[in-house]
Amino acid sequence: MVTELAEAERPRAIGAHALYLLNLLLLPGLAFVVLWWCRRRWAAAASAELRRHLDQAFGAALWSGALIVLVSLLLVLLGGLQQPATWVLLILYFTVIHAALVLLGAYALSRAMAGLPCRYPLPGLWRQP
Q: Which of 16, 71, 113, 115 could disulfide-link to 57, CB 3.0 to 4.6 Å?
């Protein structure tokens, strides 16, 4: 059964997913802090549907940061900055994972705009009821 988001809460869900995309595309870090603040401020009075959108956007932002930063650092540490293969893998990995995360965020934003639930296919986020 699909439960729709209340019309009054839709702008907050849209804002959460827009902040996720903003964190990936324009203002990394700053948009994450604003998303964290919004989640803390809105979660107490939010319906279950809005809380799911907030948790999904925040959890996806955490996973996105970990996937981009930690795996990139691991590639550099294992390969060394002097190796051309490291740079090829690093640029290829960053491009592919970043594009995939942006596409997931755009999909989640479209679902929020329609008032429908969305789950990111990242560990721990797809199991939420």
A: 16
Checking if the pLDDT of 127 tops 70, the result is: no
The secondary structure of the chain as a DSSP string is -PPPPPTTTHHHHHHHHHHHHHHHHT-TTHHHHHHHHHHHHHHTT--HHHHHHHHHHHHHHHHHHIIIIIHHHHHHHHH-TT-HHHHHHHHHHHHHHHHHHHHHHHHHHHHHHHT-----SSTTTTT--
The answer to whether the pTM exceeds 0.70 is yes
Q: What is the pLDDT of residues 39-81, one digit of tens each?
A: 999 988 888 899 999 999 999 999 999 999 999 999 999 998 8
